UniProtKB/TrEMBL annotation, chain A:
Pfam family, one: Zn_ribbon_ACC
Note describing how the cofactor binds: Binds 1 zinc ion per subunit.
Residues that coordinate or bind Zn(2+): 45, 48, 64, 67
Quaternary structure and partners: Acetyl-CoA carboxylase is a heterohexamer composed of biotin carboxyl carrier protein (AccB), biotin carboxylase (AccC) and two subunits each of ACCase subunit alpha (AccA) and ACCase subunit beta (AccD).
Name under which the protein is recorded: Acetyl-coenzyme A carboxylase carboxyl transferase subunit beta
GO molecular function: acetyl-CoA carboxylase activity; ATP binding; carboxyl- or carbamoyltransferase activity; zinc ion binding
Automatic annotation (TrEMBL), chain B:
Protein name: Acetyl-coenzyme A carboxylase carboxyl transferase subunit alpha
Domain of life: Bacteria
Catalytic activities: N(6)-carboxybiotinyl-L-lysyl-[protein] + acetyl-CoA = N(6)-biotinyl-L-lysyl-[protein] + malonyl-CoA
Molecular function, one GO term: ATP binding
InterPro entries, A to Z: Acetyl_CoA_COase_a_su (IPR001095), ClpP/crotonase-like_dom_sf (IPR029045), COA_CT_C (IPR011763)
Pathway: Lipid metabolism; malonyl-CoA biosynthesis; malonyl-CoA from acetyl-CoA: step 1/1
GO terms (BP aspect): fatty acid biosynthetic process; malonyl-CoA biosynthetic process
Name of the coding gene: accA
Subunit architecture: Acetyl-CoA carboxylase is a heterohexamer composed of biotin carboxyl carrier protein (AccB), biotin carboxylase (AccC) and two subunits each of ACCase subunit alpha (AccA) and ACCase subunit beta (AccD).
Amino acid sequence: MGSDRVDPTAQKNMASQGMSWITKVRNSLGSLGKRDTPDNLWVKCPGCQEMVFTQAWQDNLSVCPRCAYHGRIGAQARFSQVLDPGFAILTAPSVPENPLNFRDSKKYSDRLKAARAANPYPDALTAAEGAIDGQPVVLAVQDFAFMGGSMGMAVGEAFVRAVERAIERRCGFVMFTAAGGARMQEGILSLMQMPKTTVALRRLSRAGLPYLVVLTDPTTGGVTASYAMLGDVHIAEPGALIGFAGQRVIRDTIREKLPEGFQRAEYLREHGMVDLVVDRHELKATLARLLDYLTRKDVA
Amino acid sequence: MISFLDFEKPIAELEARIAELRTTAESGQLDLAAEIDKLEKKSAALLKGTYGKLSPWQKTQVARHPQRPHFLDYVRLMFTDFIPLAGDRRFGEDEAILGGPARLNGRKVMLIGHEKGNDTASRLKHNFGMGKPEGYRKAIRLMEMAGKFGLPVVTLVDTAGAFPGVEAEERGQSEAIARATEACLSLPVPMVAAIVGEGGSGGAVAIASAERVLMLEHAVYSVISPEGASSILWRTPEKAADAAEAMKVTAQDLLALRVIDRIVPEPLGGAHRDAGAAAAALSSAIGEELDGLTGLSADELTERREERFLRIGRL
Ligand SMILES: [Zn+2]
């Protein structure tokens, strides 16, 4: 992580966590010597460009042990990092596939096939029900690795189903966002997921249930301009890129240099759009504390 | 004087020839009436033929035509007693999104829409119809006022998209759009949205999440501009026409997809050739839609709106 991406508070948080994770990393470094998988033995940190042992990287929740760069992670890793053991993955809904029969340089149906082959879940949003430190919750994760996390009908419908499940269980809903924006290959139908997901959130709100958003790197476009910004509380991971318009588009429009740290988690907090920038190691505990505060005993 | 689009070149040439003949005829030496009449018929037929089969990319150009009627033209042509209200009470006033109470054939409504401007000065004043957070927050304020005082909401949507700029991001463009969309969905009064030119992405949805959505015949509505889709998906700016085709951006396509509810016909050759006729058609269509929503309770209205969007993407 370039030092420009390190949030000073995050660094402080890391320091104040004491030695536990450092010890853990050292231990895993020690045990790594015996492994014989040279191909993926090392991870090159996109932040500081240093080589880090894969095992150390993963043991540290895919956060760089050297510079605290928060790497992108998928739904499986999120579920196991945040949910108590024993959670259940919700069935992915079936939606119309390639309704516009879209093709650019490739057919959309082929792009979908390739994404499914490379990813564990059938589309970019996967939800699970379980608990966080004993508090019941439905949690959904958008995975940037699946077509840039883009929001199409499958994402919108899975989001709505997850919210409906939270209403049924009378529990909070936690959403981890990550997306380049809408799924252009579904044209206007992807744009319509903005009001559609908002409808679900209005129902959750009417039920008096909390909606916590965790904005992860990157969250941009129509996703930011809908469910990512409608939370009761907005949490962001350190250094995450969060914005409506893309930086290149903005640069082309204003024709000047963008400000330091523009559209990063810390910048959004400074401008009043994000409540908390939370290190991944403290995320589970933070969510649990917030859920506790925001769960009405008279509603449950 | 109409400015012609590239694909209208044959029509432009005929019109120029007609103008020439008229000048000659006026000088009185020749009787050219028959010839002029013949060419005018030919020109009208050509216009009809051309506009009867516009491609999605041609429609995009018509929707963006500099002389296409904009919000303030419709205010002048189809509303009376409009009181433009300013400001979001938080940061400032944004002239890209205008609104206030107005009367549509005598009926009181809350009118909100994007204004693009029609010359250099007014385009700058209205920021080319690209709203900033304060514009969307003003729209929220006006929608809440409409709900409080029982005024149906009518929106005229015409934007290339919300403004992509540093201050817009700083002040929460995303949050403003998300909350405006939510405000539409929460309205206890009827809401009718009409896409009159360009419906550009989130900046359009923010004031178009209504239970009845209309589109002018040659308007376009899309998740990203054809140029933007071309450069991202085809990795070249040259495939905009293909992108417009592939994304299904026309009123006719969107009606088939049930994303919009009604197409409002435009005068022959597009709204810019006869703004009065375009406004008259729009006025009666919106009036009919509002009639259809009269008498519904707040719960019935929000439920219709919710079901309308929930069904998109369900098998
Ligand atoms: Zn690093």
